[in-house]
Amino acid sequence: MRFDEAYSGNVFIGSSHDFTTSRVVLYGMPMDWTASFRPGSRLGPARIREASLVHEEYSHYLRRDLSEIQYFDAGDIPLAFGNPQRSLEQISVFVQQLLSYEKIPFGIGGEHLVTWPIVKEIYTKYPDLVVLHFDAHADLREDYEGEVYSHATPMRKIAERIGGENLYQFGIRSMTREEATYAEEAGIHFYPFAVIEPLKQIIPTIKDRPVYVSIDIDVLDPAFAPGTGTPDSGGITSQEMFTVIHTLAAAELQIVGADLVEVAPAYDPTEQTVVLAGKMIREMLLGLFV
Question: Which GO BP annotation is one of this protein's (predicted)?
């Protein structure tokens, strides 16, 4: 992709027109090729950008404005429709390019499988990488109905690549018995149901390490974010999600990348999910990268 000109479509609020001077690059990954329940997350990135216009560029939580951060919205990566492996290769190449320019990648999904190639590339640059994963689902399956490239397998691939002891999972409330066993055997830091207190406890242990943050919108209860492909009851509130982001912000960790995935706009005619996702992205931009 070319970075010498601004994306011609709708951009997220506050985006710079200058790639060169931007520290963070926002980009979309419109892929839902392996969705097993409800497809549609490929439409998430574009709709989140449109809905971002409802928000102010100023965060009263953080007392910061998007004018204080140089970030570039590169638009959506053009992915091979219906081809998971080819799409993952295209995401890898894109992230490689960003890292070669010393940029911090911030992706919008798309299904959660898109996280795998991003982490794989970032781990090449940062071999002591820590991954913080917020989700309703463990995503630790070896395969899903025989398919190893599935939205149910990215964290298994990540654990096998970076080491289970470097993966921290929060808010998980849906998994198979095999996934629970694997998490224990692999040494994954596994915090089912809870998010805020465990996060506060582990922050001192990862303070000096590069950190990647991956958030699946379905970590929230469907009452707050119904627009997702695999909703699961019993999740956290939107306020708890903002507390997570602000806790990470206050910790001043070395965040080397992030993503927000699994927003499927078609299942929420009220658009509260895309509006929430936009606000989360604003808070992450201002909290994690300023």
Answer: putrescine biosynthetic process from arginine, via agmatine
Interval 106-117: pLDDT, tens: 999 999 999 999
Determine if residue 112 is labeled as part of a ligand binding site: yes
Number of domains in the chain: 1
> Cα–Cα distance between 117 and 165 in angstroms, integer?
19
Burial of 234 by CB count in 10 Å (0-12 exposed, 13-18 middle, 19+ buried)?
Answer: exposed
- CA distance to 62, 107, 116, 216, 234, per residue, from 221 (Å): 24, 22, 24, 11, 6
Could you tell me if residue 14 is inside a domain? Answer: no
- Structure tokens given for 115: 């996280």
| Of the candidates 155, 173, 148, the residue with the CA atom closest to the CA atom of residue 214 | 155
Residue 162 counted as domain residue: yes
User: Per the annotation, does 139 bind a ligand?
Assistant: yes
The token duo for 277 is 């996702």
By the 8 A CB rule, do 226 and 272 touch? yes
Q: Is the pTM of this model over 0.90?
A: yes
Q: How long, in residues, is the chain?
A: 290
CATH of the domain at 177: 3.40.800.10
Q: What is the pLDDT of residues 259-283, one digit of tens each?
A: 999 999 999 999 999 999 999 999 9
